[in-house]
Amino acid sequence: MKRKTSRKKAGRSSTDPSNLFTTKRSIYVKGEIDESLFQTLAPQILRLTERSSQPITLLIDSRGGSIEYAARILGLLRAPVHGRPRPHIITVAIGDACSAAADILSEGDYVVAFRHARLLFHGTRAIREVSRENVEAIEGALELEDVRAARRLAVSVFRRFLSLYAQHSEQVAAAFRNAHQNGNEEQDLTDKRVVDVAALIGVLRRRIGGSAGEVLNRALDEMQRIKGILKLYKAFVENKVASPIYQLDKPNAGRDRKEWRMQLRVLEAVVAARLSGDGGRDLRAGSFRVLEGDFLQVLALADGSWEDELLDLLLEHDGLFFSAKDQARIAAMRALTLKQFDDSDDAQAQLSGAVGRAYRKAEPLWQYVTTLCRLLNDGEHEMGPEEAWYMGLIDEVIGYPLAHRRRDAREAVLIQRSLDLADVQKFV
């Protein structure tokens, strides 16, 4: 796929995730998330956003409610006012953060939880009158909302997984060496050995147990399965495998022929993987909803729509995803004005090539993260803040030495003193 990369995207993100929450500019999300709560919070949010673009803190203690009103609350917070940039949003779980409240929590720019908080993630739900006529429409709408929610969450989780990798890189490297000494080459899920996903999950799995740890392992298994479907799709493309369905509809494909052909190849890869899997040659084995979920996930990977969402993150971690030569090329691009860059085909080609190579290195970890977020929207997943931190769902646990930011020496000492003996042995 031909990629056009804008130099505007080659700058570092202006968002500073190290901002600590403050109660001076805060609102309280308490109780059921419904129309009444929205009417209470809307004037408060608008007053805060009109005064300045300084960070706003959401203090959350809610068991959930309406996803519609949760989206409205977030929409008000994220809207720019009077031409100013939107404020940095810091979400803090001070009690319960369940269901729609967990969605609000996870969509903060910096996500914090107190040690006693309780988090619950699950798929989208709707309370409405169900009839035989509208049940299919309801199911489709819920499925689409789950896909969107997982996609939104994945961008934040990807950033935190990079931080988890950096903090545990020595342990990950040791786990990787052990896996290969035992002849388990399949453990290396990145051909370039940049972020070994299986080794990273193995290290994180030692930190958390129970159902949360099982989700990490399930996501690894699912990732392998999705990776197999994507491999089939790429083989169909590279070998120019003819599609009888495409040939039947080719005269009607029109200008969208390329997109239509890609969708068909993805669908055929999904079906082929199902037929060759445990279910055997019987499409009735398992749910068609799983086929639909596989199709949407593989299609997003195939069409490259995930790439622009991650570009700023890759540039922030350029030492991990870009070679020394590519880092030098990007530095040269930043020295150009926008007009100079736009007028230079060579500069655009060099940047596109460097970014393309970075995407290929990042893709396995992105595959894992999107799979994990998809699983979190399937079933009930209750967890404590510590587990959520190791799963990349939050940035910081107040009172524990768990944070994706730098702490000064005084703060670190205070936290250490506040821990009991069991905690000290766990975190040291």
SS element count, helices: 18
> What is the gyration radius calculated from CA atoms?
23 Å
Give the averaged pLDDT, no decimals: 80
Low-confidence stretches: 7-18, 185-192
Major sheet summary line: 8 strands, mixed
End-to-end Cα distance: 47 Å
The oligomeric state of the chains shown is: single chain
Please provide the count of β strands: 8
Number of domains: 2
The fraction of residues in strands falls at 5-15%
The helical percent reads 55-70%
Descriptive notes:
This protein is an alpha/beta fold and 428 residues long. Helices cover 58% and strands 10% of the residues. It contains 18 helices and eight strands. Strands 1, 2, 3, 4, 5, 6, 7 and 8 form an eight-stranded mixed β-sheet that branches. Helix 5 (169-181) packs across helix 6 (197-207) and helix 7 (210-238) crosses helix 15 (345-376). The termini are far apart.
Key attributes of the depicted protein:
428 residues; alpha/beta; 2-enoyl-CoA Hydratase, Chain A, domain 1; eight-stranded mixed beta sheet; 18 helices; 58% helix; globular
Concise overview:
Helix content is about 60%, strand content about 10%. The chain is globular. The protein is an alpha/beta fold and about 425 residues long.
Spell out the blueprint of helices and strands.
Layout: E1 26-30, H1 35-51, E2 56-62, H2 67-78, E3 89-98, H3 100-106, E4 110-114, E5 118-122, H4 135-167, H5 169-181, H6 197-207, H7 210-238, H8 244-249, H9 257-275, H10 288-302, H11 307-316, H12 318-321, H13 324-334, H14 338-342, H15 345-376, E6 380-383, H16 385-390, E7 396-398, E8 402-403, H17 409-418, H18 421-427
Parallel strand pairs: 1-2, 2-3, 3-4, 3-5, 4-7
Antiparallel strand pairs: 5-6, 7-8
Helix pairs in contact: 1-2, 2-3, 4-15, 5-6, 6-7, 7-9, 7-10, 7-15, 9-10, 13-15
